[in-house]
Every structure is written in C-alpha cells, then in structure tokens.
Amino acid sequence: MANRVRVRALFLAGVVVVAACSSGAAPAARGPAPLASPSPADLSDARVVTIASTDSPATIIRKAGQVRPSANLLAWHRRELTALIHFGPNTFTNSEWGSGAEDPDTFSPTALDTDQWARTLKAAGFTMAILTVKHHDGFLLYPSRYTDYTVASSRWEGGHGDVLRSFVDSARKVGLAVGVFLSPADLHESRPGGTYGNGSAPRRATIPEAPISGPRPAGPTFSVVADDYNRYYLDTLYEVLTEYGRLDLVFFDGANPGSRQEAYDNEDWVRMARRLQPHAVLFGAGDVRWAGNENGIGPTTDHAVTPDPTAEATAATGDDASLGARDGKGGSRWSELRWRPLSCDASMNPLWFWHATSRPKALPALLDMYETSVGRGCPLMLGVAPDPTGRIDARQATSLADLGAAIRSVFGHDLASGAKALVPGKGTAAAAALTDDDPSTSWGAPATGGAVALQLARPTSFDDIGLQEDIGRGQRVSRFAVDAWVGGAWTTVAHATTIGYRRIIPLDRVVTTSRVRLRVLAARGPVSVSSLSLYRNVISGPTTPAVGTCRSNRPTSSQENPGAAGPLTAELRRMPQPADAFVAVTGTASADGGDRASQQVTIEPRPVAAVRRILGTQIRPYLFVLVGRNVREDLFTLRLTMARVTVTVPLRAGERLVSTPTLDGPGSVSVAADGQAVVLTLPAAQAEAVLAKGDLDRAGPAGAPTVVRWETTGGRGPRHPATSRFSTALTFQAGGAEGPIGRASAAWECSSPTG
C-alpha cells in the first residue's frame, strides 16, 4: 500500500415533532399529513444523475440529493470493517516493497492457516477480507499460467500450494466477503527482459491469451489493444476474476514504481471486471474514493455524491461550492453526479507487512481510528499482517479481539434505546424510528429543516453521538445540531455538517441528561434520519475522575521475562451507563530499567460484574483500570479471582463501642486496632453472593440476610460502611484465544471512599 494517487411539521413549544417513515412503507394513518413518498421509480438505482450545462448551482445541489447508491455500494457502506491482509515474500525479508528479484523459495510459510485468519477476523466483527494476491514485487500467491514468478515455483507445498484458493475458501466458510488486491505495479516484470514499461507497441489481442503453460482459461473473451505488460496484467486478472468464485471487491492500487514507467490500461481492466464480477466494488476505478491518507482518517464533511470521476481533487468531498463550480463560459463545470463513497485505510501495525519488531497500535488508537473512519461514513480497510508461519500472530489476534469487543461494547449499547417522544402522543413514531435499530425506518423532515426531541428512559451520561441517514433515499443533511436538556434549558452539545450512512461525533466532555434533541439546519432535500444514538466510550473517550486506587503488593513476573516487570498501580473510576458496559483496563508498569508501557486488556464479564458489585458502599459501578503489558509489550488477557472483601465502618466522632460486633451470615467481624471502626471480612466463597444485590445489610447467599450488629454510645448499627477494601488475585495470560505464550500473577489491594 502506498502512492495512491416527508412529513408536515407540527410546531409545539419550539420543537418540531414529526412523524416517521419507513423505506417502501406507507405513511402512518395518524399524525401530521406526510409529504409525498418517493415512487418506486424514484427508489430505483439512481447512482448517476446528468447535469446540464445550464443547470444553476441550486439545481445541481438539489439533484445531488436525488442520487442514491447502487446495491453493491450500499453493501460497501454496511460492511464498515474490512481486513487488508498483506502476505508475500516481504513477510520473510523484513521489507515493505520487495525488489522483484527475490527467489520464489523465499516464500515459505511453515504452518499456513487461513482458517485462523478467517476465524480471528470474523470474531472481531470484520465483514470482508482482502488478500494481496500480488504486491508491487510481482509475486503471485496462486499458480498462474502466465508467469513462473508464483507460489508454484517455490518449495512450499511441493509447488502445489495456492494461498488465494485457501483464503477464499476460509473466508466463505465463516461468511466473510472476499476481495483481492492485484497490484498493477510489478517490479519483477520491470527487470531486464520483463514486460513492465518495456516500450512495446500496443497490439490487438484476445484476452485470455494462450498461456505459457497449461490450457487457456475458459470463459468470455475480450478484445483489447494493449502493450506487453497490460496484456500480461489482463491475463492474470482474468484468472483471478474467473477461477475463485464471487468477489466483492477488486483493489487496483495506483503505485507505479521503478525506473521504467508503465501506462496502465485502466479502461480495459474495468471493462473486464464489470463483466466478470458485476457485484464487485472496484477500488481505484471510480466506484469509491480514497480518503487521501493511510491513517484511517476521513474528512469531517463529506457528501457521497460527487462530480464525475475525472473531477479534480477540490471536488472530492462533493460540497456545495464544488458542485456549483462554473466553467469559463458560465455553465456548469460538471456533466454528471455519481454516488462515490469514501474508503479509509490504515494498518493496525506501524507498517503493512509483518516485522519481528512491530507491535499493534494500542486499543484507544484503534478505536479512535474507527471513529475517524467508520464514524465519518468511511468504511475502514485495516491492515493485518500474517507472520512467517502463515498465521496471524498472538499480538495481532489479541488486539483484533480487543478492538471487536470494544466496538461491540461501546457502539453496541445505544443509551438512547427505549427513548420516547418528549411530548406524549406527538412524534411517537419519530422517536421509535430513531431508536429501533432498523435502518429502513426513519424520521423525516422537509428540506427547510426540522427537529425532534426525545425523552430518555433515565438520566444518561454519554460522550459519543451516533447518527445515520437512510441513504437508500439519498444523502441530504448538510448541517445539524444535537442539544441536551441541561440545567433547565436546551444546550447545544454537537454541531456538524454531513451525516450520510453513519456519523459518530465524539464529545470533549461527558454529558448527563434525560432529554436530547436533533435539529436539521440545512439539507439538499427532504431528509430521512434513521437513527439517533448515544454512547459512552470508556476506552478512548473523556474519563471521569478517579475515585479510588489499587496497588499490587508484590512484583509480577512472566515465563518470558521473570522478574522484569515491577509493581503495578491502578485507578478506580465510576462506570458509565449501562452497568454492563465494556471494561477497559490500563495503567503503568515499571521495570528494573525504568522503562514504562501501557496497554488496554479486557476483564472477563463475570469478574467485571463482581468487581463492580464489590466497589463502593452501595456497590456503585466503577471502572477498574489496570496495566496489561509488561516491558516486552506482551498483550495480556486479564483473569480475576476474588480472594476476599473487607468493609470498614468507622465510628462517628465521639462514638465508642459498648458491645462486641456480631455477624449473622458468612464471614467474620472484628474491631479495628484503634477501636474506632467495625471491620467486616467476607471470604471468597461468599463474597460475590453476599454482595450480588448491592446491599451489605441484606443480601446474602440463597436469600439469607447478612447483618452486622454493634452498639455504641451514640446509637446502634448497622450503618453503611465508609470505605470498601478488597484484595484479589489477578492472573495475566498472554496470547489470547490462540494459546498462552506467558503468564504473570499479582495480588492487589484496592480502596474506595464513600461517595
């Protein structure tokens, strides 16, 4: 990877409450009179709309609102996460761009396991995988008839291996869509005697041509006029497109390296791909646009509808000014408008191919990347690099699993779910459409704008706002705001431009409210917003103040690095709603040499619930924050085993005990050494059950009460404790689901004051 060049509004108390619509469904019989629903013809594929030279800027902008995605591009939007797998000779030579002179035997995976690739990606929430069938070095990962620079010339699998075949079979086995990256660049063919940039004259030929070995591929034929290299590229492209089943994406990279430049026959490539793989999205051929960077960052304003593919970069975002641009004669500069969504890409590692010293990006960075790509309507192609064994190594597998868990936990818990219309009976359908998790239902408003207000089920804290348009009707919102009811008044908490298929807006602070309002301020036509969601990002979003501290009482060590990691420290933070949200753990570890590192790891769900119940006098929910990487940056899965819980109940000023505390139920009770506190200790076997209902005075195993009794000069107990302390045994297991590569243990003691 590199060098890629509907309803009438009812105004009530300043809020516009509108009815909802569902794609293809009739308007509700009750409520305000709806705008005319689009006819079936209007809802057909209108991916391209023609512009007349006499069209005014306003007319062109209105036409842009009428363009809709084709079925394959709508599927592209919905896939959101794609793995871009880089695997080839570079994997074995510690390089990013090979020379094309590498011996085919360089490619020598010892345990190729494409099933493991597919399982890992599917479990992490990916929906498509793309394989670099040929990178810029020219080496092919399948046995081609048209060159000997392939896996068939290596000793791997005795010359009978086919990585592409194994890859597509594994992907389809778990339901992943399949894409191929066949680089037009070819450093092997650019060597002396090769076809790349050799100056040969174009000649007429029929693709597929007669191969250098084996029978000619069967299927439709194509007449072309092309030079030596373009015919070779078309022949190999034909093999890939006809012999490996349905492909959902074909990636034409724009690299043109080497001292000899080659003029690419893009039109012939596209013509062939359209015929042989009609469902495929073609990257680098006008179907989708590249975001312009390899950092997974999409623009904050983007319209999927842009001028024709030859339009200059200034029109790439499809903004109003670009669409209205005029030529030297006063007419429109453009001839057509197309639905051309964005594509973002980045590697989860520092580089695209596997390197022994590489480490995946930290979880907060990956989740931020998700927000700046998918959260800006830009599906993310994330680089994944199998190692020389032919597997996704434990570090990447763990990082992918953590990313998938984080996305599901943060963005899979919509805090607006169950919201009702702010005014009962008014806008009820709109509220349902915005919170029903159904992209085919939507709240509609006229092009002049509108607003809808929701009453949340309870006071809710959030720091991310999610929105989606029903793009099956077009992308039309150009400017909007989201307000929260704070301090008895509406306060704007987010203000942005486009929504499109998906928009996630991270806030710079946590907002707590029981009411939210969406206002559409400008649009290219009647709008259809299908969702308004609220999220709490505990991983990379704003954090709440620490309310307690933890420290391990002895250094940790691992099988790989005995004694290398020092004592660990951690913080306690209040957990946001919902109570079962994903718990990230992070912190710092000190090594003997003074090195420090940090990394998120995951506490498994059941122990998370136990920790949440234990902490705080009323068992308030907290976030447990803990380090999970030693000095060698090994990734860990955290497994928590509770040892015991100690609850300290200090006496009030002037009080003194006049009786010995007693305990009904499991555990023990004693008096602090200074006589100024009652101390309750619950053993591991009973602690979780005793605390399960969140009340130390009542909840006990099998419903039996646990009651602490004491008598003082100032009154009788029981009384809520002021401080909770607990100790735990923590075991780290490195390597995640694919097997341990090291273990480490530590004992912890934590405290949290009453709050």
SS-derived structural category: alpha+beta
Q: What's the CATH C level of the largest domain?
A: Alpha Beta
The low-confidence parts are: 2-45, 553-642, 688-705, 716-755
CATH topology of the largest domain: TIM Barrel
Shape: flat
Distance between the termini: 52 Å
Count of runs of 4 or more consecutive helical residues: 13
Q: Compute the number of strand runs.
A: 39
Q: Kindly state the percentage of residues in helix.
A: 10-25%
Average pLDDT for all residues: 75
Report the biggest beta sheet as strand number plus sense, adding barrel if it closes.
10 strands, antiparallel
> What is the CATH superfamily label of the largest domain?
Glycosidases
Radius of gyration: 31 Å
Oligomer: single chain
Percent strand equals 25-35%
Provide the fold topology.
Blueprint: E1 10-12, E2 15-17, E3 20-22, E4 48-50, H1 57-64, H2 71-79, E5 81-85, H3 90-93, H4 114-123, E6 128-134, H5 163-174, E7 177-182, E8 203-207, E9 222-226, H6 228-243, E10 249-251, H7 266-276, E11 281-283, E12 289-290, E13 305-307, H8 320-323, E14 336-339, E15 342-347, H9 363-373, E16 380-384, H10 394-411, E17 420-421, H11 428-435, E18 441-445, E19 450-469, E20 477-486, E21 489-496, E22 503-523, E23 527-535, E24 546-552, E25 565-574, E26 584-585, E27 588-591, E28 596-597, E29 601-602, H12 605-614, E30 622-625, E31 636-650, E32 662-664, E33 668-671, E34 677-683, H13 684-691, E35 707-709, E36 711-712, E37 715-716, E38 723-734, E39 742-753
Parallel strand pairs: 5-6, 5-16, 6-7, 7-10, 10-11, 12-15, 15-16
Antiparallel strand pairs: 1-2, 3-18, 4-14, 8-9, 13-14, 17-19, 18-23, 19-22, 19-23, 20-21, 20-22, 24-25, 24-39, 25-27, 25-30, 26-29, 27-28, 31-34, 31-38, 32-35, 33-34, 36-37, 38-39
Helix pairs in contact: 4-5, 6-7, 9-10
